[in-house]
Amino acid sequence: MKYNRQLLELMCGIFGCIADDAAAMVLEGLRKLEYRGYDSAGLAAIFSPGDSSPIETEKTTGYVSELVSKVNGRFDGAKISIGHTRWATHGGVTDQNAHPHSSNDGNITIVHNGIIENSAELSNRLNNLGYSLSSETDTEVIVHLLDHEIKTQPDGLLILDAFCTVISKLRGSWALAAIVSGHEGILVSRSGAPLVIGRGEAGISVSSDVLPFYGACSEVAYMNDGDNFLLTTNGIVAQDDVEKPTFEALEGVYDEEDPGIFPHMMLKEIHDQPTSLSNVLSGRISADGVNAELSGFDLSPAEIRKLERINLVACGTAYYASEIISSYIRKFTCIRSEAFIASEFPAKSVCSQNTLTIGVSQSGETKDTLDALFEAKKYGSNVSSLCNVIGSTMSRMTGNGAYLHAGPEFAVASTKVFSNMVAAGLLFALTISDIPNLEKKKLVQDLRKLPNIISSQLIDADEAIEQAANLILENGPPIFIGRGGLSSYIAKEGALKMMEISYIPCISLPGGELKHGPIALITQGSPVVALVPSDSKLNLMETSIRECKSRGAKIILITDSEGPISELADILIQTTQTHPDLSPFTHIIPIQLLAYQVGVEKGVNVDRPRNLAKSVTVV
Ligand code: G6P
What we know:
Distance between the termini: 27 Å
Number of strands: 24
CATH class of the largest domain: Alpha Beta
CATH superfamily of the largest domain: Aminohydrolase, N-terminal nucleophile (Ntn) domain
Number of domains: 3
CATH topology of the largest domain: Glutamine Phosphoribosylpyrophosphate, subunit 1, domain 1
Radius of gyration: 26 Å
Bound molecules: 6-O-phosphono-alpha-D-glucopyranose
CATH architecture of the largest domain: 4-Layer Sandwich
Largest sheet: 8 strands, antiparallel
């Protein structure tokens, strides 16, 4: 594995443990995993491992804090417990659909992330066996299958054998944890969704990621797809011919989700950017300040330069960052490069041995992106990744690439990681480029100044942002426009950010496209957010803005230009001048602040907007 672990970064929601106060640990673990899904939460617990009475459960729609209130200390002292935070896929957000799901006699209970694709077929089979399902979820079939298997398996077989038989009947993706009354231990299975086992003095635990293990476990073992185990206080039990995972020391420290002086994590993370940008640059620029040196890739820069093409695969914000990264690669090298929405990746057409496909992801767990990388590999492409979360599935699957070093990002809407993706991508493009040193030096010098520039911009912008937010709240959905690759991608990210946390439908497009249809949307007072860096497209942007203005639009102008373009602004948001290739960094800051401001004024929980999850581990 070539990834280098300079700093520790963290990034759906299962936690289970066997310990003296297991349920308390599960509630705390769920709190730390909540960013992965938060429409409902639940837990189950066994108080005395030998006891064969039904398992106690509690669940509720809403946040983990609501589960904690509902539990109200009732599970104190439980010895075995599993819990779940949900991001609904099958079935609405109701108490009934929340996990855990229990067998009809209450003796088995399970939590699940992922999707069981053949749940309808399994459900029919269960109905024929006399089982009735009480939820709309795809998950519930598993618990009844396990119940049937345990009750009908031949004498002499273990509970793990029954569990493995059930797993062999499932199709789709899952991370699963199950407990059975009268049995000591937690049954766990991974296939296509992450699960990590942790152990320490307090006991043994299983979690969707390592985040909850800090302070509770000293060692971790990453489960692989296909692994099915029974976790007990004495260690991991596997079926006879199956290899157990190896534990490694848990490195790093847990960074608490604490907004400090800021009212929300999102605002804190926007303000983290000077630091997070410093971190992604640190150690990746040559001592003489001329060259970028992003290491960690299997292929050397010389080998990459000989490739036919570089594909980038990503989703959401990471996709827009990837579009910018592809622009950089095209600009600084002669290699063809294109960014793809991971779920639309045409692997067969664009992958061969002479290509590199890079997954770009904050979490490193996004199923669509993992699937695209899998397809890329299938068609012979070299694969690597740009990820924020150390030890994530993507970084381990690709085994090479670079970490983003943005630190943990808790708010669902990505801010600082977007900037670090773009920065890491730029470093990558410069590392493999053979543009003249002078040109490179100028860009690299300005790149090094970026943390300071961003820091001053974060102090100056508030009043204009507030005015712009009010304009949008009063006059309706904004249109985001930019031109020339970099800015039109920032416009797309702006529209996504605004939709994610304000629920206002937004569109974004390159300025030149406006006149080919969307201009029909503009009426008196329509807000247009125009991104105008001082680059070669400035004059063309002026034309696009005039086209909007003459139809009554109100222009929120984000620009670093101090020239006459500013006269076209109804609200001017001035950014700091920098190298034109670095405009994404300076222009994304007001866009993030604007989305935040609109979200807060609308009363949205900006850190946990409805229907979203930080890490989407389903297709
Ligand atoms: C989800 C999140 C988006 C995020 C996307 C990619 O859809 O809601 O905010 O951009 O996943 O996540 P990743 O972890 O792969 O960057």
